[in-house]
Amino acid sequence: MAGSTAETINPPQMQDHQPGRETEMHPKPEYMPKFPGNGRLKDKVAIITGGDSGIGRACAVLFAREGAEVALVYLEETEDATITAEAVKAEGKEALLLRGDVGKKAFCETVVRQVVETFGKLDVLVNNAAEQHMETALEEISEEQMRRTFETNFFGYMFMAQAALPHLKEGSAIVNTTSITAYRGSPSLMDYASTKGAIVAFTRSLSGSLAKKGIRVNAVAPGPIWTPLIPASFPADKVARFGANQPLGRPGQPNEVATSHLFLASDESSYMTGQVLHPNGGEIIGG
């Protein structure tokens, strides 16, 4: 029943490492596109950070189905990244795997350079990499954790955008993944929610800066989505009930979010910039 805090949605499970591994999840997240491609990203080149699993994997496969070559940026989850690359290739497109830490400016510059050297251009940047750590009290959040969360979730977005901008042109798009927590907060994810709020402000600010150049900047704010970040962040009992309180009564799947990224990356959203889409299972945000 929707809204029940006692309902078990998925089997209880935990992972003792971040980033999480999609290969260890049960059931597996749904990432394959639901519909045939229609050339929405034909001849485009896209970078997707956090592209190995979760929402990033779903975006990668969907973008490939719609005609894009994709570069998958990931921290260390090589098995997940390889599975994603094979799924991209099954759609008839190339997948460039780039392993490293987006929290480091030099690595972000290397990513863009290698993408341009490989594919000859860059059209779309999807900033999606993230980490989160559950802490119920502010005083329990260490300086190290706070810095790490901001480096991955926010500095990485800015570093990637800085590196990408010299190669983007009129018609290009940047899509940032923020979160429902940017709008309603999260008592157990204070540093994470703060980074997601910063991403909203960054999206709106950068969109205004780039509007005259014809480069659009938008964001997607998912609600509870079944990705490796969930069992890697929360205790098993909370994972089992994850998403049950949303109006639709369940967590979303990555392939239910990637369509928002596709819309914002493609010319179908040509009159949108500085905006945020909310695939969150029916929770009213900012209304």
TrEMBL record:
Keywords: Oxidoreductase. SUPFAM superfamilies: NAD(P)-binding Rossmann-fold domains. Residues 1-33 are annotated as: Disordered. The keyword Oxidoreductase applies. Residues 1-16 have a biased composition (Polar residues). InterPro entries: NAD(P)-bd_dom_sf, Sc_DH/Rdtase_CS, SDR_fam. GO terms for molecular function: oxidoreductase activity, acting on CH-OH group of donors. Residues 18-31 have a biased composition (Basic and acidic residues). Pfam families: adh_short_C2 (PF13561). Belongs to the short-chain dehydrogenases/reductases (SDR) family. This is SDR family oxidoreductase. It comes from Devosia marina.
